[in-house]
Amino acid sequence: MNWTVSDIPAQDGRLAIVTGASGGLGYETALALAGAGARVIVAARSAPKGEAAVARIAAAHPGAQASFEALDLASLASVAAFAGRIAAAHPEVHILVNNAGVMALPEHEETQDGFERQMGVNYFGHFALTGRLLPQLKAGGARIVQLSSLAHARRGGLDPGDLQSARGYEPWRAYSWSKLAMLMFALELDRRARSGGWGIVSTAAHPGWATSDLIANGMGTSLRTRLIGLIWPLLAQSAAAGALPTLYAATAPEAQGGAYYGPQGRSERKGPPGPARISAGARDEAAAARLWEEAERVTGVRLG
């Protein structure tokens, strides 16, 4: 399947929210959706970067409908404020791409609410955002895409008793757990949406090996990180190519709820989008239910 942005169906009249859309994969996702006619909200922490992204989208697609809204996923208060503004202005949301994230922070850090930062930003923040926007998502018959990673399968299953890495912090394990949580969330959301008749489609995607802002957004300034930053562009596909699985999950008529999409090349590192491998840990429905309950408990947001 050689699916490209030219295969995105017309998105006129649809509202799309993309988190972390001021650069990298999120920007490319927002750019393509705007080019297909969607009204796009660039949700990001930095106003200057967000406004610059909107200006770049407008320059690439004259007449495109794109706007910036401040969103800090490390703050549940910011998530609630963002969702409140969206609900007041838009009765329906048609696409939600939970893309923003941080990766392999060298030291243990906490969000404003006391969560380990990778789990807090990558999973808990997006869980709360999805829950607070659920009425608008249901009204719009939305597609919801969670961004996972090849790393989701590399550190075993989650430890439900230590989601905050309180027993010992290891950067890549915490990142892998957060991305496993995102995939488990997507699958559990699909199961609950189907059983509850919510009328939404929940999917997940990963970009393979793609250039993005994740290294700059988390991995510090060590020599190893600088070397990765130099070598990675030689190994990885572009951010535009890495965004294709997300765009496929968000827009392709044949994309299914409860499915996971990624590149179709060797080891899912590069290539056009298609079905991706879901690890055994991500398929554990009992663990996914416990993870959901823990997210509701710590965020105070009931998603249902």
In the residues, how many domains can be counted?
1
Order of helices and strands: EHEHEHEHEHEHHHEEH
Largest sheet: 8 strands, mixed
| CATH topology type | Rossmann fold
Strand line-up across the major sheet: 3-2-1-4-5-6-7-8
CATH class term? Alpha Beta
- Per DSSP, the total helix count is 9
CATH architecture call: 3-Layer(aba) Sandwich
Instruction: Estimate the mean pLDDT confidence.
Output: 90
Please identify which CATH superfamily we are dealing with: NAD(P)-binding Rossmann-like Domain
Q: Structural class, from secondary structure content?
A: alpha/beta
Measured distance between first and last alpha carbons? 35 Å
Number of strands: 8
Measured by DSSP, the beta-strand proportion falls in: 5-15%
CA radius of gyration is 18 Å
Percent of residues in helices: 40-55%
